[in-house]
Amino acid sequence: MTIKSDIEIAQEAKPLPITDIADACGMDGAYIEQYGRYKAKIDNRFLKETNRPDGKLVLVTAITPTPAGEGKTTVACNLALGLEKKGYSVLLLDADLRKPAVCRTIQLDSGTEGAYEVLTGQRTAEEVKIRCRDTQRCVIAGTKSLSSTQQILGTGKIAEIIKQLGGAEAQ
């Protein structure tokens, strides 16, 4: 069995029209300002005028291969710091299994176990979570650099972990 690279998987993906995604989420078209067929800005009125619970997850990701130094880690770290300053409990999960850099960016010792061990089922998130001193911020470090991430990320384990942590961290 040949394992596809991330770029091969991305190239095979068929984007859905943003209106189909909005419909699936129960979002009225009046709240969407489309930018072409596949992108849209969501009007803030949607949050104010609909009766939905507040979310508890901010996901910083890129769905296309991005060059090093583009700022995904910096954005994620600054979002975590900003949310913490606003009084929120924050868990920052470094799921970049190719070039983990969160701990280096925030000058935190990553320890020996982290995201890889959680995603492969060797440890639980609670076991590897690092609490930043005197803060409401925790980090699950990226500790291993892998060349192929499909076997790990393709299992759906990351969604399960996010769901577990969302429940645990929301308290």
Provide an overview of this structure.
The protein has 171 residues and is an alpha+beta fold. Helix content is 37%, strand content 11%. A 3-stranded mixed sheet has the order 3-5-4, covered by helices on one side.
The 3D shape can be described as globular
* Lateral arrangement of strands in the main beta sheet: 3-5-4
N-to-C SSE series?
Answer: HHEEHHEHHHEEHH
Unreliable runs: none
How many DSSP helices? 9
Q: How many strands?
A: 5
Helix coverage percent: 25-40%
Q: Strand count, sense and closure of the main sheet?
A: 3 strands, mixed
The computed structural class is: alpha+beta
Mean pLDDT reading: 77
At a glance:
The chain has 171 residues and is of the alpha+beta class. It has helices at 6-12, 18-24, 45-49, 72-85, 102-105, 115-119, 125-128, 150-153, 157-169, and strands at 32-35, 39-42, 90-93, 130-131, 137-140. The chain is globular, with a radius of gyration of 18 Å.
